[in-house]
Amino acid sequence: MSASSIRPSILHLPAGPWSSVLDCLCGHFPAISRDTWLDRMARGRVLDADNQPIGPAHPYREGLRVQYYREVLTETRIPFEEAVLHVDEHLVVADKPHFLSVMPAGEYVEETLQARLTRRLGNPHLVPLHRIDRHTAGLVLFSANPQSRGAYQALFRERRIDKRYEAIAPALPELQFPLQRATRLVASEPFFRMQEGAGEANTETRIEVIERNGELWRYRLFPVTGKKHQLRVHMAALGAGICNDSFYPELLDARDAADDYSRPLKLLAQALRFVDPLCGVERSFESRLTLDW
């Protein structure tokens, strides 16, 4: 069994008829068996706000803060390694390989960039300041110090950080580049997909062409906003779905389909640049990964 060694998940107990925390957890998470919760409690994997173990008889109280560690019975090893590009007191910068999640989600707990870096660097305070898709490779910036975290989070919230991506996708000779794509992204079906919809734009991407190779071109993408799947949806909407994208423009594989490691998504988070909010110095980081044709 894979048990998360990083920060626990938090649940403030909802209103309900339960007499114990155990009963509430079973009711709130019907997919997790009572025996599983009993096993977690026996191993000290369910805690209160003071990091004290919660047992099966612990009385239920609405709003009680419960910490628990996600676990996966059988977790697939991702056969690609991350690279640490920078470490200091406040920041960690890593190159994430294709197929590796940034944070625990779904069937992945330990096979995530956050868990790997936490173990590798021995820092339980590591928190990603932004995310990239599991299928996207490239730079991810982590906060290493809770005291300075807010200052770096503000860079992303206030759009004071420049992000550059690279993608390989079909040629678009009928369009003039560079171009700006500004549209409204909304939820689609199935739930993990996005689509362009009517209304005021909530996403914006600048797109350039940097290399032409017959029917495929290499594009440079500058996202102004950071919505889920923004670059993938924008390129697909232009008629150039990114190579090996199984979600856009058409859904080819379910979200939980087995990974085909021979066909990585041709999308790379290539560069980050910002003025450091603590010292005022401009900082820039470049991925060491590349996309081949």
TrEMBL record:
Biological processes, Gene Ontology terms: enzyme-directed rRNA pseudouridine synthesis
Gene3D superfamilies the record matches: Pseudouridine synthase
The record ties this protein, via InterPro entries, to: PsdUridine_synth_cat_dom_sf, PsdUridine_synth_RluA-like_CS, PsdUridine_synth_RsuA/RluA, RluA_PseudoU_synthase
Every Pseudouridine synthase RsuA/RluA-like domain range: 90-237
SUPFAM superfamilies referenced in this protein's UniProt entry, alphabetically: Pseudouridine synthase
Kindly list the GO molecular function terms attached to this UniProt entry. catalytic activity, acting on RNA; pseudouridine synthase activity; RNA binding
Protein name per UniProt = RluA family pseudouridine synthase
Originating organism: Aquipseudomonas guryensis
